[in-house]
């Protein structure tokens, strides 16, 4: 298995840590003002519905793309193409899987760089958003949303 170690891995990883651990590593201060607790969410250990599955899946895929190597090896790039093709075959929502398969046939995964993959995936997501009548996402902000946090510090 190829190593994914880069200089960036020496930085604390938001996706690999809880907030308090990440905050200690980055020396970020935890806000001292107490925020109201969010309303208790009913713990329903039930299968995900289409919307829950879609939201979780897009979050995972965008995070994956944002942590993809900046300059992947040929093997890593080829494996990412394979991943998306296999993923599209086994996605549990059959109409969604079919749509995604058709979309990636017309627009094959772009995996030469992190930026290229993140932009390609954002475009695929916006294709779905457009079909569903949802707002389009500004693809220039993918890493803020799924890796670094918003520039205004609201994720810190």
Secondary structure blueprint with pairings:
Layout lengths: L18 H8 L23 H17 L7 H17 L3 H13 L7 H19 L9 H7 L8
Helix pairs in contact: 2-5, 2-6, 3-4
Description of the structure:
It is found in: Mitochondrion intermembrane space. InterPro entries: ALR/ERV, ERV/ALR_sulphydryl_oxid_sf, ERV/ALR_sulphydryl_oxidase. Residues 22-44 are annotated as: Disordered. The protein contains 6 helices and no strands. The protein has 156 residues and is mainly alpha-helical. It has a domain at 49-156: Up-down Bundle (Four Helix Bundle (Hemerythrin (Met), subunit A)). The radius of gyration is 18 Å and the shape is globular. Mean pLDDT is 84; it is low at 1-5.
User: What is the average of the pLDDT values?
Assistant: 84
Terminal CA distance: 33 Å
Taking all Cα atoms into account, the compactness measure Rg is: 18 Å
Q: In what range is the share of β-strand residues?
A: under 5%
Biggest sheet descriptor: none
| Total DSSP helices | 6
The coarse silhouette is globular
Return the structural class.
mainly alpha
Instruction: Kindly state the number of beta strands.
Output: 0
| Shape-level CATH architecture of the domain at 49-156 | Up-down Bundle
The CATH class of the domain at 49-156? Mainly Alpha
User: What level of helicity do the residues show?
Assistant: 40-55%
Order of helices and strands: HHHHHH
At CATH level 3, the topology of the domain at 49-156 is Four Helix Bundle (Hemerythrin (Met), subunit A)
Low-confidence stretches: 1-5
Question: Can you tell me the CATH superfamily of the domain at 49-156?
Answer: ERV/ALR sulfhydryl oxidase domain
Region (Disordered): 22-44
Cofactor: FAD
GO molecular function: flavin adenine dinucleotide binding; flavin-dependent sulfhydryl oxidase activity
Pfam families: Evr1_Alr
